[in-house]
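STRUCTURE:
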């Protein structure tokens, strides 16, 4: 019997938070249904793949992190391919496709993917499918889904082309007398016939109606009769659990079922070891909160709280202004209880969780998650290990379908994870930041096993906060400011809720909370403690040379690191009165002068003692009507970028002629992008140059580490 050898593909990923990894795993899983053998590796497992000799198609899935950096597990790979010693035909033999994940709210969108792509091209590699650039800012699915859909066709075309290239090469290596002219023509003809597929992923996604799971890894489902909305009392607007025509009438392309890969059992134990915090890590410190000050008043503003930590006994937390640190918070006890109840496990919370790999799992590269330690209780697992608030991905919804008894609910879950239901998924799940608990509430007949949650819920991540103090000014103290995140009620969430960490911190500090004027006299009998670890930021630092002019842009809580910078400068001025200090500018913005102007007194005192030369503040909601009129007539600025424009000439001069540094901190969603666009306009008009030249100037500033961002969203 001849043994059928399936064609190989290599799938490589670089992933920071697991999104790229999970897409790569999905590709590896679907490969089999497409008659292929996939070898899946993380880019840092370089003993498992060898691109220098790889003859099969290679699919890269890479994300970008921070300020355009590669994910940690792709760093070495990027370093390797960037080596100057590689010749321009180093990867001539390599055929690749690349999907880059990024977020346009951040600078250097998809930078890691672009860097790899650019270098592969420079080294002669051949791209067999158009590179996808997926934007988390607008929804990864928008690009990822069609890209994945077109991938298999492209891989098959690439395999055919590669094999015909090989035949052609072998043939041409025969002596010319062995070849008749028609043979050569035939090979050339087959080459043109098997050109790469259309490289536009949008084009390749159209036209192929998928009908069989064995062909494309997706299945076509038709609506059950019950989904038709015939009850006139039922609203015609869709909601999380209710579908309306057209969607409810459509045949759906549903992703293939992710193969289960974990066996989970709950062991009864004699004694219960109570653990009250995240498990030991060498860098973790449980520090007391010594002060909590509410920096905002009134309505229509986000509550901002300054928290002071007493780090006297924690040398590991020696920080510099510009650094941030991680806060480890647990999931809410009430939500953990509800989830246990919902899973029918409320009486088993103290049992130990044993997790192992399913013996016959079809999942490629399956592993027991490294963040689930041995010998922990079920309660501990749900409290400290899994992000139970995370937004369920489409693959999770697909898996939940299998555990849902009611056919109408099944259908709705199928819709939400289908290609046709993307708009509903984005509206009711993704943009609402729905959690698994909220989702299960809306689908009461869905009873997933615990193993499914462990397979699909990501690791509970600590939340970073920027230091808002300097040790010279506040020895033994570490301050930070948090803005309390509020999730409004929506379909699937009857009442609003706070962000996980900010809500938890808010509850912890409420008994201590005072107003700024009472802060000095604050003293507590009981001080709550929180677990933190330092996250040094080696680039977002005050320049060592004090004569360098500084421009700081930090609206809202983005002002935090600049409070640290200015406190340090104030001290340095006192200690070295003869030293030269460059000009300092701070652009701050908030909604109302009298409600959320954070650190107002401290900032004004920096100005009056000469630490800060220019404080430019704007209010986006004060005297709204007047301001709107004023904007039209070039009046008071509303957002930080408007203020930057007003001082365009001086700012550009400082940056481009006096070697100044520009720091931007805060909201990544709009502010950082708007500031960047404004800077571009400022350079264009001040230097009278075109867009390309302005981009080069900004890129130059970044390269020299004189345009730095610390942004989040
Ligand atoms: P979560 O429960 O994690 O929810 C926040 C998520 O929900 C975000 O992804 C957000 O996009 C989304 N979201 C927010 N509001 C809504 C809404 N209404 N509807 C739907 N989705 C929504 N934060 C500060 O306040 N101060 C700082 O100094 C600070 N420094 C940071 C420094 C760094 C380097 C980084 C990366 C982040 C920083 N952050 C800071 C952000 C902080 O880490 C947390 O992300 C933030 O406090 C929210 O945490 P949470 O657990 O309360 O919210």
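SEQUENCE:
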């Amino acid at each position: 019997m001849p043994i059928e050898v399936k064609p190989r593909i290599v799938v490589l990923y670089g992933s920071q938070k697991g999104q790229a990894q999970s897409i790569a795993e999905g590709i590896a899983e679907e490969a089999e249904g497409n008659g292929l053998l996939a070898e899946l590796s993380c880019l840092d497992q370089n003993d498992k793949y060898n691109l220098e000799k790889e003859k099969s198609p290679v699919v890269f899935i890479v994300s970008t992190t921070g300020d355009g950096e590669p994910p940690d597990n792709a760093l070495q790979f990027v370093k390797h391919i960037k080596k100057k010693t590689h010749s321009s035909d180093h990867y001539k033999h390599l055929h690749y496709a690349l999907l880059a994940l990024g977020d346009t709210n951040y600078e250097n969108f998809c930078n890691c993917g672009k860097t790899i792509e650019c270098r592969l091209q420079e080294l002669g590699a051949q791209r067999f499918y158009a590179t996808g650039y997926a934007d988390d800012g607008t929804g990864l699915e928008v690009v990822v889904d069609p890209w994945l859909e077109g991938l298999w066709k492209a891989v098959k075309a690439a395999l055919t082309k590669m094999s015909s290239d090989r035949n052609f090469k072998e043939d041409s290596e025969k002596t010319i007398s062995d070849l008749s002219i028609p043979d050569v023509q035939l090979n050339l003809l087959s080459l043109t016939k098997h050109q790469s597929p259309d490289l536009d992923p949008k084009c390749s996604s159209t036209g192929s109606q998928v009908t069989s799971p064995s062909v494309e890894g997706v299945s076509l489902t038709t609506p059950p009769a019950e989904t038709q909305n015939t009850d006139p009392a039922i609203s015609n607007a869709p909601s999380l659990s209710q579908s309306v025509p057209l969607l409810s009438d459509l045949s759906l392309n549903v992703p293939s079922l992710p193969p289960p890969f974990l066996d989970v059992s709950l062991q009864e134990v004699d004694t219960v070891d109570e653990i009250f915090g995240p498990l030991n890590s060498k860098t973790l410190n449980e520090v007391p909160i010594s002060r909590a000050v509410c920096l905002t008043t009134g309505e229509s503003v986000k509550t901002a709280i300054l928290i002071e930590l007493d780090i006297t006994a924690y040398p590991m937390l020696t920080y510099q202004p510009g650094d941030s640190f991680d806060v480890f918070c647990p999931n809410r006890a009430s939500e953990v209880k509800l989830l246990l109840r919902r899973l029918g496990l409320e009486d088993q919370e103290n049992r130990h969780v044993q997790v192992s790999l399913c013996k016959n799992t079809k999942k490629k590269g399956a592993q027991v998650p490294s963040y689930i330690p041995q010998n922990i209780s079920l309660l501990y697992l749900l409290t400290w290990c899994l992000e139970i608030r995370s937004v369920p991905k489409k693959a999770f919804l697909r898996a939940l379908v299998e555990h849902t008894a009611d056919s109408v609910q099944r259908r709705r879950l199928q819709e939400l994870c289908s290609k046709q239901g993307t708009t509903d998924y984005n509206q009711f799940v993704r943009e609402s930041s729905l959690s698994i608990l909220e989702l299960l509430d809306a689908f009461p007949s869905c009873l997933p096993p615990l193993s499914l949650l462990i397979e699909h819920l990501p690791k509970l991540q600590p939340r970073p906060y920027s230091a808002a103090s300097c040790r010279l000014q506040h020895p033994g103290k570490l301050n930070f400011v948090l803005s309390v995140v509020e999730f409004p009620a929506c379909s699937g969430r009857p009442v609003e809720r706070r962000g996980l960490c900010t809500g938890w911190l808010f509850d912890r500090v409420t008994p201590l909370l005072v107003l700024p004027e009472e802060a000095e006299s604050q003293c507590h009998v009981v001080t709550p403690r929180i677990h933190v670890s330092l996250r040094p930021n080696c680039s977002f630092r005050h320049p060592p040379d004090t004569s360098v002019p500084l421009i700081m842009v930090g609206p809202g809580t983005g002002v935090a690191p600049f409070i640290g910078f200015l406190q340090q400068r104030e001290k340095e001025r006192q200690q070295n009165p003869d030293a030269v200090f460059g000009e300092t500018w701070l652009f701050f913005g908030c909604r109302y002068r009298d409600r959320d102007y954070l650190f107002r007194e401290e900032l004004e005192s920096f100005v009056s003692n000469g630490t800060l030369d220019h404080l430019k503040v704007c209010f986006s909601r004060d005297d709204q009507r007047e301001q709107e009129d004023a904007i039209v007539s070039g009046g008071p600025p509303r957002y930080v970028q408007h203020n930057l424009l007003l001082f365009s000439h001086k700012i550009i001069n400082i940056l481009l002629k006096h070697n100044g540094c520009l720091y931007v901190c805060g909201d990544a969603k709009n502010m950082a992008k708007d500031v960047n666009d404004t800077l571009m306009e400022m350079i264009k008009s001040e230097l009278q140059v075109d867009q390309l030249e302005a981009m080069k100037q900004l890129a130059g500033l970044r390269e020299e580490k004189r345009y730095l961002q610390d942004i989040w969203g």
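REMARK: The longest helix spans residues 141-173.
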